[in-house]
Design a protein that fits this description.
This protein has about 1100 residues and is an alpha+beta fold. Helix content is about 35%, strand content about 10%.
Amino acid sequence: MRSTQEALLEEGNCIGSGPLMDLEELDHHLESILASPADIIRTLPAALVSDSYTSYNADLSTSTETPRTESEIIVRIDDMDVDMDNTASVPISQQQDHTSRQDRSLLEDSKLLGVHGNLGNSFESSVSAISDQSELTSLPSTSPPSSKATTPVDPDGLKEPVEVSVNDTPTTVTAAVTTTGTTTTKTKRRTFDIRPRVSIPTDIAPHDYANQCIAAAESSRLNPYALHQDEYSMLRNHISHAQVTTYLNIRNGILRLWLNNPRIGVSREEAVGCAKDSRWFDVASVCYDWLVRTGYINFGCTEVPLPRKRAKKVEPGKRGKTVVVIGAGMAGLGCARQLDSLFRQYARQLQDSGEGPPRVIVLEGRNRLGGRVYSRALDGSRSQHLIGFKGRRHSVECGGMIITGFERGNPLNVLLRGQMALPYYALRPDTTLYDTNGRAVDEGRDRLVEKLYNDCLERVSDYKFKNQPSKLIEGNKDLMDEGRDSSSEGQKTIAQAEEAAAALPQAPPVSQQSLGPQVSLVPVSTDRATGKTHVEPGTPAALKAAYKARLMGWALKDNVTEDYDLDIDAAAKAPDATLGSVMDEAISQYKSIVDLTPQDFRLMNWHVANLEYSNATNYNQLSIGGWDIDAGNEWEGKHTMVIGGYQSVPWGLANSPTQLDIRKNTPVKRIIYDSDGLGSPRIECENGSTIEADYIVSTIPLGVLKHGSVEFDPPLPPLKVDAINRLGYGILNKIILVYAEPFWDNSKDIFGCLRTPSSRHSLKQTEYASQRGRCFQWFNVTNASGIPVLIGLMAGDAGFDTEHSKNDELVAEATEVLRSVYGAKVPLPVHSIVTRWGSDRFARGSYSSAGPSMQPDDYQTMAQPVGNLFFAGEHTTDTHPATVHGAYLTGLRAASEVFDIMLGPIEVPTPLIPPKESALTSQGPKRKAPDDGPLAPSPKSSKHARIDAYEHAAWQYIVAQIGERPWRPQKVAGNSYLLYSKAFFEAARKRCEEGRRAGKGKPGPNEVRVMTSKMWKEATHEERKPFEDQAAEQKRMYGEALKAWEDKVKEWDQRSVEIRKEYEKDHKLVLDEEGCIGDEDGRERRRAKISSYAESEGSDVDMRS
């Protein structure tokens, strides 16, 4: 009898029984889709929520010919890129230009940023276009802080106001001293026709506003309570330690404005409105410049604020600067889009140099966008279709595939959800491992072996590179949590205070002051979807091996005491030591402590293969010191896949809000640059063309740099060449199998298969290396592709072997692996694809890794510019290497570097914060000085002053009658575990000292926290009950206080409305003829609370199959 799910499955229709549509056909198809009012964002979720498939045109015949396997990367038949000259889509920003700012604010209220909204002009998943047609090629070859004092203020630097137009706002500016780097020049101080606090909402409590600002900073990869290193360098000569708190409140407030609606850029006036005192307007303006130019706000496919006055006409014959970006992957497109945005936001400043408008050119060797993000179109003519995919693009990810969480600062959160509103599917994390006999591995045994594997990694982590702590200049956390600025301002700048401290006897130098704590991170678990190791602060290898094994639940061998320990020091300090060699030694030594079976070794090596998947190479080719150099920088949240193709993201960057100048099918042969940055560089292409430039940004993959197919003239400096040689660059390949109908468990998105060496019962760790990564991990991507598709991973040595293996042999091997789990019923696929990234001449591999001889600063060396040649790509970041989001972030960084060269560093007025008694206290009308001419006050300033005075008087009248509005009671934790951990902290610390190895010091706070958690889990009901009762009592008391507060607030609000009416009746507010306030729209459109663009249980497209 058929199951309910099987009854809902029917034969899929044929889109075409022949080859997939060619490029011209696809363009017409896309135009028809884009021109129609149908909205994929609107229709997709409702259709996909069902647990079923459906058929379309069932009367069409289904071919029964032998399934065909194609080699990728490298597709021979379907050229699926979108021709940007022919596309009929209208970028979001262009349509929004006709929308008022008040209307735009409704985007947030209607939740159009989520995938359930109705966005007729959003990026549709069917436009993710985009295939490749390339040929198989040859097989791959195997500032320390300145110690200078603050620049003295020039008393003659303060001159009379002059009317000018700055950026996008006519403002009054005053001459002031400006510090840029180590030079001091005179500049004109901006003044803003705006009120303080105008960007701060008035309808929420200060601590709620503060929480939103803090959350915005955390969602922007910034410490909300401390200065970034670049902020420290920029401001150390201008603000005091006490003033850091106020600066951070302003900065976090600007970030809040941005994240509330990232489809519209933050203007300078809105940013300045985050200051609560006009004396801090210049600080907010400088902070705004830093956030914009470094890519923390106004990045991606956003409608940036443009100058209100037209730019000056450029004299005929004036040539603008040209920036050429090599590569249209995520790094290249991110860099080009950011430069285009900066050129528009700073158009007036750039044209003040007398040159024409700058331009950006992107050169791409392939005939598609995305680089190693490649969504291969699928022919679903012989497959059952998931409901909701009719007329949509079926695709599968040949390259980058998984978004590893949107929270805690992933820029893809803003791009994919906040701006493009692309649908995505959240992977279910549950994973089942199947042994070679087809039976599921016992979960208890699986957890036991995984703990042992993680302990081996922890012991090897004792030999990792030790990161040097950096400057930590913090604000007052208590004040910031309450939404308050510091009332103290201090007498010395940060630089003056540091240098005064350094002058004391036996005091540390400036570079060693105010350093953050040095934190060691230890592995605690492994992410089975990505192979990444999860870490926590702690002391690596603190406990003796036998003692730790017993705590994990292992039974020790006879005659083995808890004092027995591993000795891997000699292996770790060997000249040729690698992560793999030391791990193999640790696993082998554990055989002397506990009984390990052949199945345990198969399980252990499945986890090793997962680690090799995350690094795209055998772990014997990884540095023991830097194999997880990016540890601690992981995002949080669900792992997701983009429905319709990850390639939709680079396509969106290329086309919105304007189309970039991208020249596809233009491979670069030679890069001629000036190492001193003085000459004019140029690029010679394989087609014989030469492109002149002023600056070049290379996003050429590390594999291509290693291959040497692109010539640099002059050759790259030895420092960079050595880093290229030391860094690793591996291969991860996929076997993609398309079926007519699913035969696997559709309730899971991931499952694993244990592999055996030539001898099934081997207990030798080294014998597992060649086989462990062959189809060890499978992804069921049906919910993202729309038709039944499985992806098998070829990791470690298997990834390299794929480059030289025949397609039929690989598909047959993958099929046998599946049959070992699901039986003989497993059919041959109707279509199959084998990726070969090592053979792709534009990639030469998958992604970078820490090579055996890697040095700690190699990634940073790769990022350093050489004259007018700049570098970006996943191989130029040490915080997010080998990732799509990491590549994008390097594009933002390279754009910032180029722009700083073009426009110069950010100018910081001196004094940055005028003294309270200064005449500059008011940024509006100025008192007439003896030598000043008449200066009429601004009408807006006068109107704002009257409104402020009226509102203040009305508020004082209400408060005098009924007092201030009651404050919400502070929320209590009400958590029984927290109460327990506080009471048993000392007992947990003593337990951590048991079995501790010599020389490991006292247990750290995180170790004690882990122990208290373990003690809580082991506690009996009677031991827990007092703390549960106490927590319940706290919740009860808070509930009563909250109810009383609500009653008081309701009564206060009613009385305040009545009193306000009485006041307005007796005191009329008289405005001028204009009547309205010009900056209210800016406030209204950004009133909503900080959000994460629908990261919730119902946020993503729910497609259970």
